[in-house]
Amino acid sequence: MSAARDVAYRCVMAVGDDDAYANLVMPGLIDQARLDGRDAAFATELAYGALRMRGQYDAIIAKAARRDPASLDPEVRAALWVGAHQVLAMRVPSHAAVSETVDLVRRERGQGAAKFANAVMRRVTEKTADAWLTVIAPGTSRAAKAVRFSHPEWVVAEFERALAADGRAGEIDALLEADNAAARVTLAARPGLAERDDVLAESGGEAGHWSPWAVTLASGRPGDLGSVAEGRAAVQDEGSQVAAGALASARPMAPEERWLDMCAGPGGKAALLGAIAAQQGVRLDALELHPHRAELVRSSVRAVPEGTVAVHVGDAREWGDEGAYQRIVLDAPCSGLGALRRRPESRWRRGLDDLGELVALQRSLLARAARLLAPGGILAYITCSPVVAETRDVVAGSALRQLDAREAVAALTGTTASDWGAGPHVQLWPHAHGTDAMFLALLERPD
Questions:
Q1: Is 384 a catalytic residue?
Q2: Which H or E run includes 317?
Q3: Could you tell me which residue, 17 or 4, shows the higher pLDDT?
Q4: Alpha-helical regions (H) of 330-389
Q5: Is 280 helix (H, G, I), strand (E, B) or coil?
Q6: Label partner for 203 (CA 20 to 30 A): which of 17, 45, 77, 404?
């Protein structure tokens, strides 16, 4: 069995057995196997694709095996996902995919399971991907789209609602398809610490489309870049850069301002805002509930001039003095459904029942943020989710006054406010903007 396929399988199993995150476990597996660039890319696409498309592949396996995939041993099911992705999405020759899958199952579960896997994989190879879709997902119903694009049906329903609310009804297929395309790696050249032109030259990347700090990479290992290793630049989605940067661009800054990042881990927004704050003599408190994530924040801000960012461990709902901050960023814990391109397993880890608990937390955090905000201060409410219950509905329940976030985003990106929808919030979309589906609302405490 090839080392690349073995790494992909181990990643899929780690996600299933240990609730690991693919983007965190994969680099270590690649290093352990000493894969080179081409094999590392193959293993990553194979693992991410199998995890992302498991809903569709389960439907195919159910037909090919004539049994519920959930009844299979986890090792067999994971191996079949990996095998199916090779055949149906990666143009790997059928004989190679079948042989490798059978060898893998034999190693993990023995000869009997290997015979079963051989029979299933041979049936899978009898049809093309398009032919299978006519069998497992005929028509245009929501249920059919859920199988065709490998999203839970409740997620499809929430996306349809969010698109309609944003004036994008009818774009659901484009959004679901974008979720299934691997996102390019994007760096943020942190202002005052790294010039974007220098990062462009160092990385061989391209300037981002929206953020003045963004550099997109076609390939490679960003951690090998000196600017990234030193913390002067970092991997950060362009939508995240825009959402955080809009808080700084919303109005002129004064040196005596105090800023707060309420839910700072793992630290990307804290580092970007900290770099901006350092140029203006502003201080930033970065608060994180979990100590291990607070350590990630400290690492992320290591290049920011000393004395600018103070990292604290604590519960944001019990933090600070009322009226203490002129600007607050609340990147609220959310379903994460806006980042499905980057987190292939995320779509399968949440259920509709989770939204109630998340929304209650978001409302309580926003209520506390409103008390911490100084009169005239601005708060950026951000989620990496377009779900209406987590975005518009939460903001609508706040006592704060909503500003037109489009103006701040336009000032940052060199566009016009009308480019960003009907407002007053801004909703980014993978299929429309090439970013994660970040939601931004800017709120002001009246004087």
A1: yes
A2: none
A3: 4
A4: 354-372
A5: helix
A6: 45
